[in-house]
């Protein structure tokens, strides 16, 4: 059985996979539209005017593009641990309010050398296809919460099975019939075998909602996405409480 990739090993796999990543995700029906839908679900006003948004785990910039489309007036900072993915993201054309930083979620709250442009606080954090890939999801969620202003919003967009047998069967069928064969053709089989297992061995949607609450978020909502990904991919919305025990507004 394939071992899940973690930390530097996973970043290296994404570095290698970056060259074909955009072409592969473009074959996924609804991939970009679903990212835009999750970005809209943040519910930020006035096109994000005057707001800062963190795109955590931005990869090659697909999630960044979704945020820019929905929030053209916001300042968006894309952060990723894979230099190869960031290289692809930076090579694309972006409006002046977009920047990219090489860092992990934990770096943003603990490292002293994080560029000023990436330092919090943020009005919202968007994390697509990230949390199930990290070694310690709870630590990452705890690191995200103080990056938000009090009352700031979090949207997690990810493959997270709904809990029905059908959901698991659909995911396994898509991986066996499409994802793994394409990953093999591009020379990235280990990365996409990791992708398959990272979903089947991670939380159900209900369990992940509980994980968000335990990390200190409130107003947690779980919203499905349409098409074949119903029951497979979800938007999770949450908020850093405006008032926290022992803290200030």
UniProtKB/TrEMBL annotation:
<keyword id="KW-0489">Methyltransferase</keyword>
<dbReference type="Pfam" id="PF01209">
    <property type="entry name" value="Ubie_methyltran"/>
</dbReference>
<dbReference type="GO" id="GO:0032259">
    <property type="term" value="P:methylation"/>
</dbReference>
<protein>
    <submittedName>
        <fullName>Methyltransferase</fullName>
    </submittedName>
</protein>
<dbReference type="GO" id="GO:0008168">
    <property type="term" value="F:methyltransferase activity"/>
</dbReference>
<keyword id="KW-0808">Transferase</keyword>
<dbReference type="InterPro" id="IPR029063">
    <property type="entry name" value="SAM-dependent_MTases_sf"/>
</dbReference>
<dbReference type="GO" id="GO:0017000">
    <property type="term" value="P:antibiotic biosynthetic process"/>
</dbReference>
């Amino acid at each position: 059985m394939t071992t899940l990739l973690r930390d530097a090993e996973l970043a290296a796999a994404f570095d290698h996979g970056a060259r074909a990543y955009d072409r592969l995700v473009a074959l996924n029906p609804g991939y970009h539209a679903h990212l835009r839908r999750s970005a809209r679900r943040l519910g930020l006003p006035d096109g994000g005017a005057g707001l800062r948004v963190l795109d955590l785990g931005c990869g090659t910039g697909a999630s960044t593009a979704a945020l820019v489309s929905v929030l053209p007036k916001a300042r968006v900072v894309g952060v990723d641990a894979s230099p190869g993915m960031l290289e692809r993201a930076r090579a694309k054309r972006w409006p002046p309010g977009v920047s990219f930083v090489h860092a992990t979620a934990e770096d943003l709250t603990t490292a002293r050398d994080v560029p000023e442009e990436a330092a919090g606080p943020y009005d919202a954090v968007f994390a697509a296809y990230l949390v199930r890939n990290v070694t310690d999801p709870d630590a990452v969620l705890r690191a995200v919460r103080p990056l938000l202003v009090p009352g700031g919003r979090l949207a997690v967009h990810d493959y997270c099975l709904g809990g029905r047998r059908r959901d698991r069967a659909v995911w396994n069928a898509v991986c066996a019939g499409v994802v793994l064969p394409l990953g093999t053709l591009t020379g990235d089989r280990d990365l996409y075998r990791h992708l398959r297992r990272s979903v089947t061995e991670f939380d159900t949607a209900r369990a992940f909602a509980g994980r968000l609450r335990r990390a200190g978020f409130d107003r947690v909502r779980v919203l499905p996405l349409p098409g074949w990904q119903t029951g497979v991919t979800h938007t999770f919305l949450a908020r850093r409480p405006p008032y926290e025990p022992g803290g200030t507004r």
